[in-house]
Amino acid sequence: MFDPRFAQAVIAMCVHDDNGALGIAVGRLHDSLRFRAVLEEAGIAPGVAPDAPVHLGGPVEPQRGFVLHSPDWGGHGTIHVGSHWALSFSTDVLRAIAEGRGPTQWLFALGYAGWGAGQLEGELRQHGWHAAAAHPALLFDTPAAGRWKAVWRAEGIDPALLASETGRA
C-alpha cells in the first residue's frame, strides 16, 4: 500500500457501487478520545453506554461519527450491509446506545474511507488491497490491534508470509 494512512488497514466496506465506495477503518483507535466523551460533546447523556474506544474510521470527514453495528438495529440513517452489519450515522443510534436499546454489537468511528467511481477498482488492480470475505465476528469480537492479522488468518493466509512487493507476469 502506497498511502501510509492505509498500511495494514482493515476496512469494513459498507457501500460499493457505480458511484464509488465507502468503508470504515476498524484497525486503529483514537489515542485519547472515548465514546462517552463523544456522547457528551453531542449533548447526549451517556446513560448506560460503555466508555468504548473510538476508532479512526478514515481520512475523510474525520469529525463525523459513524456507528458500525450488528444488523439487529435500524433507524433513520441506517444502511444495512447484507446480513453482515449495518452502518448508522444519525444521532438516533447514539441515543439508543446511551439508553440501552441500541444494537447488541457496535463500534464507533470518526471519519471514513471513501473512493470515487472506479477508484477502488483501480487500486485493487495495482495490488494495493486484498478483498477479504466479511467476518462479522472478527469485527465485533477481536480487539482493533489484532484485526489485521486475524482477517488474514480467517482467509487462510499466514500474514508473516506476505511479500511487500508484487510482480507482473
From TrEMBL:
<dbReference type="InterPro" id="IPR003774">
    <property type="entry name" value="AlgH-like"/>
</dbReference>
<dbReference type="GO" id="GO:0005829">
    <property type="term" value="C:cytosol"/>
</dbReference>
<comment type="similarity">
    <text>Belongs to the UPF0301 (AlgH) family.</text>
</comment>
<protein>
    <recommendedName>
        <fullName>UPF0301 protein H7F53_09390</fullName>
    </recommendedName>
</protein>
<dbReference type="Pfam" id="PF02622">
    <property type="entry name" value="DUF179"/>
</dbReference>
